[in-house]
Structures are given as structure tokens and as C-alpha cells.
Amino acid sequence: MSELVHPYHRFIRPTVTHSSFCPGCGDGTIAQSILRAIDGLDMDMDDFVFVSGIGCAAWIPSPLFNADVLHTTHGRPIAFAFGIKMGLTEKKVMVVSGDGDLVAIGGNHLIQNARRNIEMVVICSNNGIYGMTGGQAAPTTPMGVKTTTTPYGTFENVFEDISGLVIAAGASFVARWTTGHPRQLTASIKKAIQKKGFAFIEVISQCPVQFGRKMGVGNAVQMLEDYKNRSISIQEAKKLSKEELKGRIVVGELVDLDKPEMVEEVTRMRKKAMGGAEAAVDTGRS
Ligand SMILES: Cc1ncc(C[n+]2csc(CCOP(=O)(O)OP(=O)(O)O)c2C)c(N)n1
Ligand SMILES: [Mg+2]
Description:
By secondary structure, the chain is α/β, with parallel strands linked by helices. The chain has helices at residues 27-40, 77-87, 99-105, 107-116, 162-169, 182-194, 208-215, 220-230, 234-237, 262-282; strands spanning 48-52, 68-71, 92-98, 120-126, 173-178, 198-204, 231-233, 249-256. Strands 2-1-3-4-6-5-8-7 form an eight-stranded mixed β-sheet, sandwiched between helices. Helix 1 (27-40) packs across helix 6 (182-194) and helix 3 (99-105) packs across helix 4 (107-116). Bound molecules: thiamine diphosphate (TPP) and magnesium ion. Thiamine diphosphate binds next to strand 3 and helix 3.
């Protein structure tokens, strides 16, 4: 009898023999959605450079994907990704990291590169906590939740709408899904990969170990059920008031715009400047 091989086995680094994710973690769903999107577009790993920061979600591309991957310092993957895109304009650059990495310590890289509209795909696994380091409060942790660093409950105001933040900063494409929407997530990742500009996808993702236990919201299945129950499409959400939307997760493709992309603009300007320099040499002008 022949051995059954998973269709995405070819995307996985051969030296990886086990997953670094806890049982029930949403990051496996995100990893598979990325691979489904790449496969669905008939692309392969050589078309991409992946970049991640530090945290559980950062383990999705590194070491899991058999590709060129930069596992960078905490909060800095988008800065590295910008550098890669400037040097290797023909590559698709995809950042995969956590809410802490991208929105807390890395928040300024996120908004400035969205503003510049640098072509890259950024996938943010938003589990509302610093998962890998033991469940400390993040800017995305809901108010009042008891965490390792807030034994009496968090007292900070929260980034409730990080997709909204990235839209306001100027990104071309922004979508939000949960790990309970793997098919819709895959379809949005496909669009994001094809987008000329900064494409951001927020994935509300369950961390049953560090978040579920502490919040008392239960195990992975209960967390997924909760996501499904609270989700509302952007089309339906538009009919409701702010009050009515309290506690709901607005999902869908929130923004899809065509606007100038900075790496292309820089390349055009560089060509123009070089053309000017060559013309100056031709005519003997200094
Ligand atoms: C400069 C710096 N500050 C803090 C840390 C510790 N640290 C590593 S990962 C992390 C947070 C990870 O949270 P998130 O990005 O949400 O990823 P998750 O594990 O939840 O997927 C922190 C605070 C670090 N490695 N470097
Ligand atoms: Mg996190």
C-alpha cells in the first residue's frame, strides 16, 4: 500500500518533524490557509520571501515553511520586509506575526509602511495576548482580563480595531476574519498576494492555553464557537449602530483600493534620476 502524503507536505521544511503550536492553537489554521492560497494561485515557495518577528505566530513561516524566511527581532519584521522588497522587487514578501509583535512594539512600522503603501502581505494572528512569553497583557487584551502581568485585571484602554488603524494609515487592502472562517481567509489571502500595495489581514485566533484558560472562555472549540456567534459581515454591520456592534467581530474585506505603491514609485524615480545622469555624461555636462 502506498503511503499517503499530505498535499501541502511539499511546502514544509523537511527538517521540521513536529509543530511548535499548543493543541488547539489557531496558528495551524492560519498556516494552512496561507498554503492553500499559495497552492490555489499555482505559485510556489520560490515566489516568496517570508518574514516574521518573535512570538508563537512568528513560528508559522519559520521554521515551518520550506522557503526563504527571515525570523527577525521582536517588532521589526515589517522593517525587514520593506528592505527585502526594495532589493528584490519581483518577490512576493509576506510577513506573518502576532498582535504583540505587529501592533505593540512594532506598531509604528505597521502604520508607517501602511501609509507608504509598500507592497507586502501582512498577516496578523490576533490572539489578544502575548502568547509565547506566558500570557502577558497586550494592547489587544480586553479591559479587565486577568493576565500574568495584570493579576487584578487589565486597566489599559484597548486597540479594539487594529484593522481600522491600518485602514486609517492608508493600506490598499485590509480584511478581518477569524480562525472559524478558513475558506474566506484563504480567499482574502489570495487577493492580498495579488494586491499591488500594503495588504493587511487580521485573523482573530484562539490561544486556548494562555488566553482561554485565563479568560475562562473555555477550550479551542468553545472559543471557535464564540467567534462564529459574535461574527457579523461588514455588509450587515453597516446597518447597525456602534452600540449594537459592541462585542461583535466585524468580518470581511474592509478595504480594497488602488493607489500608488511606493517601491514602484521609487524605482521609477531612480530610473529617471539615472537617465538624467547618463544624459549629463553624454553631453559632457558635469
Ligand atoms: C525587544 C523585545 N522585547 C520583548 C521581548 C519578549 N517577547 C517575545 S515575544 C513577545 C510577545 C509575543 O506576542 P505576540 O506577538 O502577540 O505573539 P503570540 O505569541 O501571541 O503569537 C514578547 C513580549 C523580546 N523578545 N524582545
Ligand atoms: Mg499574541
